[in-house]
Amino acid sequence: MKKLTDKELQIMEVLWENGPLSTRDIMLHLPDNSSHFNTIATYVRRLEQHDMIGHEELSPRFYIYHAAVTREQYVSFENKESIDRFFDGSYMDFISRLVEHHEVSIDELKELIRMVEEE
């Protein structure tokens, strides 16, 4: 998996929310649809080269693209990358930082502990 650019992430969001689409349909769903078709097609090819999306060929020059990874898989990847980069891979350091800066409450921590114990 790879870290996505903003435009690549927008394309993935479109596929996650709408299911399989053609390149032209992807363009129609993008928040800023001012990009040229060839630009979006390049992003789509790049995502496919990195196994983020796949395609089905409906005719010789018409493809339908689908997400090959789920949003949850990508979020997990991004979270791990960030924790590795900023906290040397220590989830404890990450959570400690959240507590120190009051970004997570005691009740939320208790709920997390309850979730872990039930697992």
Explain how this protein is built:
The chain has helices at 6-18, 23-29, 37-49, 71-87, 91-100, 106-118, and strands at residues 53-59, 62-67. With 119 residues, the protein is mostly helical. It has two domains: 6-67, Winged helix-like DNA-binding domain superfamily/Winged helix DNA-binding domain (Arc Repressor Mutant, subunit A); 71-118, no CATH class. Strands 1-2 form a two-stranded antiparallel ribbon. Strand 1 and strand 2 form a beta hairpin. The radius of gyration is 19 Å and the shape is elongated. The model has no long low-confidence stretch (mean pLDDT 93).
Report a brief summary of the structure.
The chain has 119 residues and is mostly helical.
Quaternary structure: single chain
Question: What proportion of the residues is helical, as a percent range?
Answer: 55-70%
**What value does the average pLDDT take?**
93
CATH architecture of the largest domain: Orthogonal Bundle
Counted up, domains total 2
Please tally the β strands and state the result: 2
User: Low-confidence runs (pLDDT<50, min 5 residues)?
Assistant: none
Beta content: 5-15%
Separation of the first and last Cα atoms: 27 Å
CATH class descriptor of the largest domain: Mainly Alpha
Strand order across the biggest sheet? 1-2
Secondary structure class reads: mainly alpha
CATH topology of the largest domain: Arc Repressor Mutant, subunit A
Inertia-based shape: elongated
Question: Radius of gyration in whole Å, from Cα?
Answer: 19 Å
